[in-house]
Amino acid sequence: MQKGLSVSDSDGSTFAPLVVLELAPNTKEEAVEWLLKRIRDKQQDGGAELLVEKLSPEDQSTEKDNPNVYMVGASMRRLLFGAEDVGLFKEFNDGTMRSFTCANRHNFKEFQGDGDSFLSMAECQYIIKHELDTLRAKGEAHVPGYPKMKLYPGKSVIRRIQSKGILVQIFPLHENEELKRLSFSWYKQFKLSFQPLDDIRHYFGEGLALYFAFLEYFTFALIPMAIIGIPYYLFDWEDYDKYTVFAGFNLVWCTVILELWKRLSASLAYRWGTLSRKKAFEEPRPGFHGILGFNPVTGREEPLYPNFKRQLRIYLVSVPFVLLCLYLSLYVMMIYFEMEGWVLMIHDEEPTFWTGVLLFIPSVIYAVVIEIMNLIYRYAAEYLTNWENHRLESTFQNHLVLKVLVFNFFNCFASLFYIAFVMQDMGLLRQSLATLLITSQILNQIMEAFLPYWLQRRRNKKAHRRVIKTLADKELPLSDQVKLEADMSTYLGTFDDYLELFLLFGYVSLFSCVYPLAAVLVVLNNVTEMYSDALKMCKVFKRPFSEPAADVGVWQLAFEAMSVIAVVTNCALIGMSPQVKSYFPESDTQLIMWVVAGEHLLLAVKFILTFVIPDIPKNIQIKLSRLEFESLEALKKRVSTASLAFNDTLKILVESSVFFTPDT
Amino acid sequence: MQKGLSVSDSDGSTFAPLVVLELAPNTKEEAVEWLLKRIRDKQQDGGAELLVEKLSPEDQSTEKDNPNVYMVGASMRRLLFGAEDVGLFKEFNDGTMRSFTCANRHNFKEFQGDGDSFLSMAECQYIIKHELDTLRAKGEAHVPGYPKMKLYPGKSVIRRIQSKGILVQIFPLHENEELKRLSFSWYKQFKLSFQPLDDIRHYFGEGLALYFAFLEYFTFALIPMAIIGIPYYLFDWEDYDKYTVFAGFNLVWCTVILELWKRLSASLAYRWGTLSRKKAFEEPRPGFHGILGFNPVTGREEPLYPNFKRQLRIYLVSVPFVLLCLYLSLYVMMIYFEMEGWVLMIHDEEPTFWTGVLLFIPSVIYAVVIEIMNLIYRYAAEYLTNWENHRLESTFQNHLVLKVLVFNFFNCFASLFYIAFVMQDMGLLRQSLATLLITSQILNQIMEAFLPYWLQRRRNKKAHRRVIKTLADKELPLSDQVKLEADMSTYLGTFDDYLELFLLFGYVSLFSCVYPLAAVLVVLNNVTEMYSDALKMCKVFKRPFSEPAADVGVWQLAFEAMSVIAVVTNCALIGMSPQVKSYFPESDTQLIMWVVAGEHLLLAVKFILTFVIPDIPKNIQIKLSRLEFESLEALKKRVSTASLAFNDTLKILVESSVFFTPDT
């Protein structure tokens, strides 16, 4: 728990603030009071039984500050029950991970005394978020003071006031001490070391820790390729013939690393207790709307939206829109090739140094345009997916990921495929690949980390200057810290980070055989990415709520799809190499047949490998089976105890000869 | 429960016999007594708490009969607890399927009064089998009277005496009344009707019912293909050009029917309560041996066999053996082609009617040889897989299925692939396919149903003649029925039946475009197969123990693999058709490129389809989610009740100020 900061409760006792609720400044008094009462009410009365207090700024000089900021905390007892409620897994005395229960709390390894340090602050904040989210309307027909904001029994109060704009934002507080320690071990020491994954998980939760684990794993996986790539680059620069071996290596590599990652991620998820954690029933997402009806699963009243309407929106609007965008992207690509030809013509007419530089200009422009198109498309995709009105956040995310992936893949790789297989110009392919890779990396790093960091620093300086007068080197008082954090940007999740890795993976696995330096560049990029991502998580963004995650989700699938495409592409590149062609001097047909046969064989082997390599390492599999076995045995014991009781009842029945007269 | 038959218990009361245990005639008295005591002992004392009595034959005239035959039954109370123990799913009052619990028994739909007719006899027999299987040794060091038959705490008694030959066989009794009713609705009325799946499941269990459901589904799925095939056969007999459309149809068909089957099978499994049933912890299979150690999952003492030794046996012996067999099969194929060429030569020299007949002889001989090789290989595979010493029956089955499938696939289809793609002789392909299909069907039907049926009838007649003297048209007495059934052959599971369907599916999906009558032949075969399989289940074999199954298991995978191969094969056949070739008169390369591109697209669509079509129909998905949601809610309630209790404890702690002093 965070030391040093505390808020006075209404009855005088203090509590550590965990989560900040910022309400709109003009929220009506009665709505605020109703909300606070609901949050404070006992669970038996349908409340959340949390502690909540208004932030009392020590310095009320600045008029423009929002006065409606509330701090939420909870007693340790409440948090422990919350932990049971959300199904948290913790390490048991025997070293296995088990679902935490209060009754059993003393058998958990880190539970000492009153359990004060048992839950990390991130876990506490996650629990409070969950409890707030499941705070449901009871009898209220609408939010008090706002007759138009309808409520119905069972509707999540927080989600309603959030979607209606009363709740401006809800975010967990940073812990300055912890953050300093984490950032020191994470990015402040300039030596090569492993990412402090357990600390990241402790502070930011499993979802983000898995992203950094994947980033690190991916970087390490690239190193052999980078090492092989350097001599290729140095000695065979113009010798495309030799790339066959490299393509073959590529092909095996991208299959194997994904399989191994699955195992590593299962190990991490087990250690962090998310592997066998059961997902709670998902609430409708805040923006979801529809006609009030009864959910067939829960029986609760909630908005229903007919599936066929959603399908219509998807197939009649979203799909055509995506196709249109793909067409547009193709069009831009064609313009690029025209520019390319035009520049080449100029260079051929009168080759000077400047025309040599000019040769790279179209590629750079194209790379920039691609990035801009990706960015614009991203907003459009989000808008469309929102409009499709998916009930669950997870389906929303899946549809969004699919839309964005298809477009990004097409946008980034279409030109490369065109050059490789239609124009069959390996020199141009290498040049395009290099330009695309380098430009997009530079753009990304700037857009993603340094620009926000710079903006944040400017903002911080302004805020600091105000405060610095009173405090020399002491810590900021709570009210200032909250205001500082409230102004920070919000981290929108790991989507963009994974997307970037996905595209890099594509560049490397698809075409690195023609440009062996690609792997080296990606490794360099990843190393800086680690630092810049760490920086942005610690300094630029508000602390995000921790997201329990057992794997990288839909991205595993995306990467696997890419690796299948990589097998096909690499086989085709091998087939096109002069070295291979020289084996079949007479007939192209035979060559193609052999390449196709080889490719089919490889794909078959790939699928068999996916099937044969177990996704979960054996030692963890054993631990999981043991838990399952124990719960089955426990159930059996319960049955036989019940059996004894039932036995007695039966005896009475049999003695009064009502029950079971044997057949004759 | 079976009316009319009963056995007197030791204390004079009677019970309905369910399962027969046949011990070796020379079993020592003390071993028998110990076994009976363990079966009868109360569960608290580690017994199975079942009823067991020696079969007392009314007619002891025949000396050669085995006197050591025991009947096992159980009280209804015991069976209900057993049902809870094995995790039986039954229909609840609200129409959903739920795990049966005794405490909740009156809320189940079919539970009336004392629950006498609640469990079907097959379920009772399954429960008894399970209870016998989990009857474990306690302190015994060996089977009494047999110092060499070692026991250790936790070892399944039944499995030990079975693997040591004391227990000759264990089988459930038929119910004559039920069987008559079932066989009437199943195969005795010669009208086309659906299979009585629910009745089959009621009598034989889910595993077998799913097989018949699949057989029926597969037959219906073939009908459109058969209908399209007839005009093709009638009008385009020699026109190979037109088969492109048929191959395209094939390709879509085999993808779609497998996806739909998954949904149908999920519906059936839900209705039968096996879909969400949890698998119990699997015991080591009877033949498994190793050095005594502790199972890392259960902590129980049991034999352990190091995995690397098993892997060595698999990779150094089994794999080379399989490869050798494949080589042999290839060799036989080459001999067939030589014979074929030789016969063709004779026919070409002097074509007469007899040389025309001679043309078919090599194919027929080859078909017969293939069947014989399959049969021999089957035994070898079983022996080898046994020798590999797998711990679980399920892994044993998977390895066996894999071995047999690979060889059978190769053996049956290698010649067809050779003719199609190396010789490119469509006329010969058609002729070979027809001969293979028809010969193997005829052989199968004879071997599988009519031969055993005929043998069984001869045996029955002999047995009957002995009995018939005393009984005119009355039912057989129990002792005679038991002896009759003990002499019947044992049904070895659905393996061979599925294998046959798998090969038929292969003939149809791979090559039916060149021989459109294949689908018609397979439909005819399936219809007779339904009757002959029904006949053999009811008349030829001992009743098998019911096998709870939620799907067709590894066969789904096998069929899907075949459908992928079918896509590739059909694309290749399309590419080879003169009709398609005429579109690319100049270049073969272009043709191949287009075919390959189309094939890749189709495979991609196939995988996307597999992914997009939900495996479980939506209405069942909703029911399952509801159950899960309810159990989560119930858990939450339990937590908040506990919370109240915990609350009180905490109050005391807080009041004595031991617990939770807030941070400052």
From TrEMBL, chains A, B:
Q: What is its main location?
A: membrane
Subcellular compartments: Membrane
Alphabetical GO CC annotations of the entry are: plasma membrane
Give the Anoctamin transmembrane domain ranges: 200-626
Domain of life (superkingdom) = Eukaryota
Q: Which UniProt keywords apply?
A: Membrane, Transmembrane, Transmembrane helix
User: Can you provide one Gene Ontology molecular function annotated for this UniProt record?
Assistant: chloride channel activity
TM ranges: 208-231, 243-261, 314-337, 357-379, 400-421, 433-455, 501-524, 591-613
Q: Which InterPro entries match?
A: Anoctamin (IPR007632), Anoctamin_TM (IPR049452)
Q: Which Pfam families match?
A: Anoctamin (PF04547)
Topological relation to the membrane, as annotated: Multi-pass membrane protein
Q: Which family does it belong to?
A: Belongs to the anoctamin family.
Record's protein name? Anoctamin
Look up and give the organism this protein is from.
Esox lucius
